[in-house]
Amino acid sequence: MLDGNAIAGTLSAVFGTDMTLVVSTCGGCGARGPLAETAVYVRAPGLVVRCRSCDSVLVVVVERDGRYCVDVRGVAELREPPLPAPD
Amino acid sequence: MNWRIGTVMDVFAETDRTASIVLTVPGWPGHRAGQHVDVRLTAEDGYQAQRSYSIASAPEDDTLVLTVERLDDGEVSSYLVGELRAADELELRGPIGGYFVWDGSLGGPLTLIGGGSGIVPLRAMLRHRIAQARTVPVRLLYSARTLADLIYHDELVAAAREPGLDIRFTLTREQPDGWDGYDRRIDRELIADAAWARADRPLVYICGPTAFVEAAADALVSLGHEPGRIRTERFGPTGR
């Protein structure tokens, strides 16, 4: 098991921007955190992103003939990261 | 983000299981310390395999360096560490990632905790600190099984003599005679001793195998560190 950092390249190819700081809310349990911290399985058929709290599938990415197909049913919300807090 | 072709300038062993690959990549846009690249191999029959590897060089370094650990079942890493030679070409895309990244502008103090090849992105941060952000104090804790498994050993020992850099090692399996570092797996007490305290409000970067990262992060949170100031990256085999 890896984490969302490991598929940052693929997510960037799919969404057109870096997604590791984007905060996802799990559609299963409501846990919230940056995509970088999700649990990622890369040897399933396709890439499988799971919630670290409840293990629900958040995202599945399959690549076929150079085209991506993305299932995001498990995600309740994707939100851009907050601006860094001033120290 | 497009795939690019890099040319291997040099490949050299760091340890028995790891090698550093020095690349020139035409059009490379530069990177931030902690970022990685995706490497893609294509077999003659068209089968492709892709993995993500941390960049070991600092943004200020002249060449792009990846340090790769050969995994027992690694279909990509066993090629990169063992078969790849100077003048070979390598397909890659990057730089990738905005989460496990440190710039001097983020400040410090900095706690860096690495297990095994998890030292690689932390080494890029350390080199960036030395090149660009000399006022940021750093504490680095590096865990490996044996002395021979420590990647960048000589470089890290030399860096430890610089002001503001506190670099410690723990060897979990076997220690040489006269070893004066730590000699066990990381735990709460060890981290409390080696890392910045909560009151110092450090930024923390932890990289290594999943179990190592969880143990280090849990220990820091139990010591009162803010989870929001702890960034993690998990390395390892792609199976399971």
Description of the molecule:
The complex is a heterodimer of chains A (87) and B (240). Chain A is mostly beta strands. Chain A has one helix at 8-15; strands spanning 2-3, 23-26, 32-34, 39-41, 47-50, 57-64, 67-71, 75-79. Chain A starts with a strand and ends in an 8-residue tail after the last strand. The model of chain A has no long low-confidence stretch (mean pLDDT 91). Chain B contains five helices and eleven strands, in the order E-E-E-E-E-H-E-E-H-E-H-E-H-E-H-E. Chain B folds into two domains: 4-96, Translation factors (Elongation Factor Tu (Ef-tu), domain 3, Beta Barrel); 104-235, Nucleotide-binding domain of ferredoxin-NADP reductase (FNR) module (Rossmann fold). Chain B has helices at 77-80, 119-132, 153-159, 188-194, 210-222; strands at 4-13, 18-24, 36-42, 48-54, 64-69, 89-96, 110-115, 138-144, 165-171, 203-209, 230-235. Helices cover 19% and strands 32% of the residues of chain B. With 240 residues, chain B is of the alpha/beta class. Chains A and B meet through strand 1 and helix 1 of A and strand 3, strand 6 and strand 11 of B.
Q: What is the number of domains of chain A?
A: 1
Order of helices and strands of chain B: EEEEEHEEHEHEHEHE
Shape category of chain B? globular
Tell me the strand order in the biggest sheet of chain B: 4-3-6-1-2-5
Find the structural class of chain B using helix and strand composition.
alpha/beta
Domain module tally of chain B = 2
